[in-house]
Amino acid sequence: MLLIISNSNFAPFNIATEEYLLKHTEHDCFLLYRNKPSIIVGRHQNTLSEINHEYVVENEISVVRRMTGGGTVFHDLGNLNFCFIMQNAGDASWSFEKYTQPVLSTLRELGIDARLEGRNDLTIAGMEGRNDLTIAGMKFSGNAKLVWQDKTLQHGTILFSSKMADLSAALKVNPLKFADKAVKSVRARVTNVSEHLATPLALGDFIEKIRAQVSALYPDAQDYSFSETELAIIQNLVDIKYDTWEWNYGTSPKYNYYKAIRTKAGTIEFYLHVAKGKIEKLQIFGDFFGRKDLAELESALIGVAHRQEEVLACLQTIDVSSFFGDVSAEEIATAMF
Q1: Range of the domain at 276
Q2: Helix %, strand %, coil % of the chain (to 5)
Q3: Is the Cβ–Cβ distance between 55 and 167 less than 8 Å?
Q4: What's the structural domain count of the chain?
Q5: Residue 233 contacts by C-beta under 8 Å, 6 or more apart in sequence?
Q6: Same domain for 241 and 284?
Q7: What does the pLDDT look like over 220-268, one tens digit per residue?
Q8: Which of 74, 198, 290, 319 has the greatest CB tally within 10 Å of its CB?
Q9: Which of these three, 197, 231, 248, is where a domain ends?
């Protein structure tokens, strides 16, 4: 088994690394990595309905779609991510027990009653906290997996010392904006491992404990670093897939989007139908006064990617005030997200 600790904190690179190891190596692999603030979306999810778009843009948070299903998760440098890629695993079941065991064993050695609950969540069962408060059944890890050919990939998060306020803000979405059949994330009470430690432990030391557990379970495990050739292949995956709007947003399932805004000209309501990331249908209503027929504006936006930059670029070629009155192209573009 190859033991790999990523030197990168760039989410598209680390998610691309998982695909590279799955599809281009003939060894069992165990990968650990941390990402700068980022949102990782499940394969079958509607990206925009899972994120707080305004917060993500304002804080320059990376949004990346992964290969596996399941829900959306927030990463930052206080979150440790682990990934097993196993060759000829003969494990087509959807049990998550086998590859979460090193994490659970590590936490139990640290005196934390951690367990696998439900299908794919790791939780901390209970703790007498400060002021005699009891914390129970709180999630610190979500896991997902896929089987590709005869290989199994299973990966998960470990909230160790993440900024919970950032997590909440980045994933706070108004559910009334979207109607779709995409897989939805199930929000759970979450906690950091560090909050349950009797003795403080640095994340770097925690990483070494996880690594030691894996080495004990797999005696053939050896440290591994990528060659320049391998790094170039991974970077190419980043460039053509994991750092592109087409993959991270454009492959979302069909969805309907609704939003209403108040402007100087009055209330404006937007109803969009989006497929393959592009606006297929648009209807605009409101109590504003305009000189021109809205059908002309609606038609101009059909086929435009539901991406704020592209919507704005299209609107900037049009005199939007002739349709709405005292409203800017920037206000209209922002309202469509």
Answers
A1: 255-335
A2: 35, 30, 35
A3: no
A4: 2
A5: 20, 24
A6: no
A7: 999 999 999 999 999 999 999 999 999 999 999 999 999 999 999 999 9
A8: 74
A9: 248
For residues 146 and 29, what is the distance between their CA atoms, to the nearest angstrom?
15
Residue 206: is it exposed, middle or buried by C-beta count within 10 angstroms (0-12/13-18/19+)? buried
Residue 323: how many CB atoms within 10 A of its CB?
Answer: 23
| Number of helical (H) and strand (E) elements in the chain, helices listed first | 12, 15
If you average pLDDT over residues 173-183, what whole number do you get? 78
Helix, strand, or coil here: 155? strand
Question: Structure tokens of 170?
Answer: 């980045």
Residue with tokens 């009334």: 176
Q: Residue 48 CA to chain centroid, in angstroms?
A: 11
Rounded CA gap, 198 and 200, in Å? 7
User: Which DSSP state fits 193?
Assistant: G
Q: Give the pLDDT confidence score for residue 185 in this predicted structure.
A: 77
> Do residues 229 and 331 share a domain?
no
> So what's the pLDDT on residue 90?
64
Percent of the chain with pLDDT over 90: 83
pTM of the model: 0.87
Type of residue found at 335: A
Judgement on whether residues 8 and 85 belong to the same structural domain of the protein: yes
Q: Would you say the C-alpha torsion 77, 230, 12, 23 has a positive or negative sign?
A: negative
Encoded tokens for 168? 């909440």
- Listed residue (187, 152, 148) closest to 170, CA to CA: 187
Tell me which residue of 164, 209, 220, 235 sits closest to 8, measured CA to CA.
235
Beta bridge partners of 223: 3
